[in-house]
Amino acid sequence: MSASVRLVTAAHLPELAPDDQELLHALRRRGVETEVAVWDDPSVNWAAAPVTVVRSVFDYHLRRDEFIEWVDRVEPLTSLQNPPEVIRWNSHKSYLLRLMEDGFPSIPTEWVDRGSTVDLRAVLAARGWAEAVVKPAVSASAHGTVKVSEDNLDEAQAHLDGLAHQGDALIQPYLYDFETTGETSVIWLGGDQTHSVRRPSGMHTSLEVAHVGAPLEPTAQELEFARAAYDWITPTPLYARIDVLNTRDHGLLVLELELVEPALYLRHSTAVADQFAAAVHKLV
Prior knowledge:
Layout: E1 5-9, H1 18-29, E2 34-38, E3 51-56, H2 64-74, E4 79-81, H3 84-90, H4 95-101, E5 110-112, H5 120-127, E6 132-136, E7 146-148, H6 153-166, E8 169-173, H7 177-180, E9 184-189, E10 192-198, H8 207-210, E11 214-215, H9 220-232, E12 239-247, E13 251-258, H10 270-281
Parallel strand pairs: 1-2, 1-3, 3-4
Antiparallel strand pairs: 5-8, 6-7, 6-8, 9-10, 9-12, 10-11, 12-13
Helix pairs in contact: 1-10
Organism: Solihabitans fulvus
GO molecular function: ATP binding; metal ion binding
InterPro entries: ATP-grasp, DcsG_Biosynth_Enzyme
């Protein structure tokens, strides 16, 4: 029997990341024929399943152009989720510019265009930042992110130069609120706000660390703020994780709208995994 749903993964995770396996199990509990496919596997017939859900594609940021070409190829063949339009704009952090232009506060950012040269020391001095982070505009789980201080400015400058040679980059102040408070991630599945987690403090670089979170009930202010950011997203996504940070100096900030392959922390609740499976099933 042909699969009704395909869950998309990366070649190094042929059975999905552990968290995404919970969705696979939940779909099969519902009797939905579901299989896992690697996004860049040339043997896959993407038209064979009516619904295709992007999940553990944790290498897309290393090959974004190829990944977006895959999105373009698959779009007319199946119901690709999240919607292809959302995947395209969300896979580059320039969407944060539009978000801020529409009135949502985010971390102050110095944008560095591909091919340009920026004096990192001058930026820190002009902005009054004692410490900062440098990161690529296409990234996941802090890939390519370096913390900058007076002690490593020369190395950080070389890193920034390398990033800007390959693509766009960002310079942002380092906020100690990441360590003292931690991110609040508010999650929507199938249009419903289902659960929230507190994500790890500090900079994390491994998949396993990035996908660990403790369930929590966000404050009413955090929830309202995250909901406004979710409502900003067009078209409406099947799944979304809105990461916010309550800071001492800047108040509530939107950190990211995670809409391509976010950890959704399904391992915390079978009921939430079942709810996600029901939302996917409705698309079949």
